[in-house]
Amino acid sequence: MINLLDRMGVQQTVVVPRSGLKDPSWDLRGNQIKVLEIPRNDYCFGYLGLIRQDVFFHEVPELDQTWDLIHIQAINFAPLAYVSSNGTIPILYSVYSFLRQELGDSNEPELQAQFKIQEELLMRSQCIHLVSKSEMSYLAKRFPEYLFKTEVLSLGISMPSERWHPGNTIELLYVGRLLNYKGIEDLIKAVSFVRKRGRNVRLNIVGKGAESYEDNLKRLVRTAKLDNSVKFHGWKSPSEVRKWMAGASCLVVPSHREAFGLVALEGMIMGTPVIASNAGGLLEIASNNCALTFEAGNFLKLSHAIVTLHDNPYLQMALSQNGRQKALKHDWNHLGSSYMMLLERTKSVREYSVR
């Protein structure tokens, strides 16, 4: 989105944390993008990973200026947004997941603190941007008082050069964080079930998670005697991920909860067939004419979907073509005008309040 807005003439200053940095660093990109990289360390970020706004303005005083609007995408930057706004500059909050829904409504103190930070940000923002109708349904039930300032606008995707080119073996692919609600255990169980019924499928898992959970997944693989059929490849760069997606027989997104489903979209735009659960925003992306869907959390239904796709090359080609056509509608170039309108509406909140 940043590059798209740059091409549309929007001046942007983007603040991003980076590991391994010692001092803040400026970088100029595109036509009018100023990127400020700040060290991801205890000096710049404090409790719960919240940015220390006092340290920040001391280190980077040039950011203490009047902006047209402030766009925030992570709760870590909430203190900076509030100070920069000073109650007069409108804040646009893009919510990529509701933490209380994503992480479970746990009583663990640090999680409760994060939930409260996000919910305060929802209250103090002049405009809330959600990425799916599913997320809007959650907000309507949990925070109906914010419906008046909320809009749904899909995430976009850039056009990759890679296209689907599967090999001769049946290679399933999972891409993403290794978290318990991502359905990876269901996928491993499904692979075991399918192999016992004579389909020689393999599974590649690309992504990282907590060491303890990754160990649990590997233990499940060993118990199911899938050591030669399920491989963990760790974190990969975006370019490497695209190569994995292009070479896979099928991309599987088995999440129990999902706000949007960007990974599914990234596979579909290459023409890679997708099997996805019907969780949340995923179903809005991966409908039945462009992906095979199954009941979230049901590994037997997932097994059936894998067998159906494995045994039907014509279905593979149909999903490849239909999925790509669906994904093309989410190209950033198609969404540019909608995002500009969202920014203008948020900016107008300030103009209205001044009058």
TrEMBL record:
Claim: Transferase is one of the keywords in the record: yes
UniProt entry keywords in alphabetical sequence: Transferase
Regions that span the bilayer: none
This protein's record includes keyword Transferase: yes
Source domain of life: Bacteria
Sample GO molecular function, one term: glycosyltransferase activity
Pfam families found in the cross-reference section: Glycos_transf_1
Residue span(s) of domain Glycosyl transferase family: 166-325
Xref: PANTHER family: SULFOQUINOVOSYL TRANSFERASE SQD2
Protein name: Glycosyltransferase
Taxonomic source organism: Desulfosporosinus orientis (strain ATCC 19365 / DSM 765 / NCIMB 8382 / VKM B-1628 / Singapore I) (Desulfotomaculum orientis)
Lineage, opening ranks: Bacteria, Bacillati, Bacillota, Clostridia, Eubacteriales
